[in-house]
Amino acid sequence: MIVDIPTSSEFFDSATDLLHSAWDQVAGLLVEFDEIGDFAYEALDEEFDDSDYEQYWKAAKQALTTSFTMVQQGVEFFIKGRIASVSPYLLLAGNPSAWPKQCDKEDKSFSLFRSIDAQDLVKLHDTVFHERFSPQFRTWYEEMRSSRNKIMHTVDKKVSLNPETVLATILYAHEYFCGEKNWIRSRFEYLDKTPANSMRYIRQHEEHKPYVLLQVHTELGVIVEKLQPSKVNRYFGFQKKRRSYNCPSCYEVLMDLDFFEPGYHNEYFKPYQKITENAFFCCVCSYSETVSGQRCIEEHCDSNLVDNEKGLCLVCGAG
Ligand SMILES: [Zn+2]
Ligand SMILES: [Zn+2]
């Protein structure tokens, strides 16, 4: 008998983790680049320019390529997950004569069997799964595979990846397999169980919560700047060109940071936006509330956007 058979949800979990690992790498580099600009150049009283940006990403080429490869592998796992939901045995390659020796005499682990070639996954999927891939997905998948092959097998300097492409690929893949506007929620789930955040002490005290939130704010702040407005709206439900504010709910959590000081939050991404006349919504934590027309209690602040539930001013955080 074949044992240790992978389940559909195991494939989906691994796929999601691969997308997040790739995102970690690229978002980490973008945040680092941004921070270098803020600190090093500010101290020198100089601006960093396009050549800095180019040099930085040239040096990061390998990290970008690795991330892109992880995304491709993640997508293969998503497809395998769907196939495994029909039957994991469909993923086995070759005739029984090519199967591991003695497999009919003793139990063999699924991983000892050769699995079908990656290039056959789409055909297999569309033959057995109840819903075929859309033509757009097929085109996207083929393009991703071929550009990855080009990048892997050439030393041509003109063929390169940029961080925006890798991020957009992650977001598209996740949306296709896991549903719309789901990435930030998935990001929280992933960051909540990183190795450090899995330790017992951390779990008992939940001290990681404000740091996880800070990380999401930090990376989104940089990424929203990089991605096209249409993508930012599609994947995060955030209108890049519209005014946004500090979210009172995120603010309350961030106040638990060890190094939090009043005014500190102003440096961070403001994810709270108007959705109707006086109702606001946070694309990071999904908090939504209305604002009162009352003036903020802080003397130097002339805002009249005070959150009705939390009583916090959206502009200065007083309340
Ligand atoms: Zn929020
Ligand atoms: Zn205020």
List keywords for this structure.
mainly alpha, 4-stranded antiparallel beta sheet
Short description:
With 319 residues, the protein is mainly alpha-helical.
What does this molecule look like?
51% of the residues lie in helices and 6% in strands. The mean pLDDT is 91. A 4-stranded antiparallel sheet has the order 3-4-5-6, with no helix packed on it. Strands 1-2 form a two-stranded parallel sheet. It is globular. It has a domain at 1-179. The protein has helices spanning 8-44, 50-59, 61-86, 121-128, 135-152, 163-178, 183-192, 200-205, 209-226, 229-236, 248-254, and strands at residues 2-3, 108-109, 272-274, 279-282, 288-292, 306-307. β4 (279-282) and β5 form a beta hairpin. It has 11 helices and 6 strands. It is mainly alpha-helical and 319 residues long. The longest helix has 37 residues, at 8-44. The structure holds zinc ion (2 copies). One zinc ion is lined by residues 247, 249-250, 271, 282, 284-285, 287.
Give the uncertain stretches in residue-range form.
Answer: none
Report the bound ligands by name, code or SMILES: zinc ion
Distance between the termini: 65 Å
Number of strands: 6
What is the tally of helical segments? Answer: 11
Q: How would you classify the helix and strand content by structural class?
A: mainly alpha
The average pLDDT value, as a whole number, equals: 91
* Shape summary: globular
Major sheet: order of its strands?
A: 3-4-5-6
Radius of gyration: 24 Å
Tell me roughly what share of residues is in helical segments.
Answer: 40-55%
The arrangement of helices and strands along the chain is EHHHEHHHHHHHHEEEE
The biggest beta sheet, please? 4 strands, antiparallel
> Which range does the strand content fall in?
5-15%
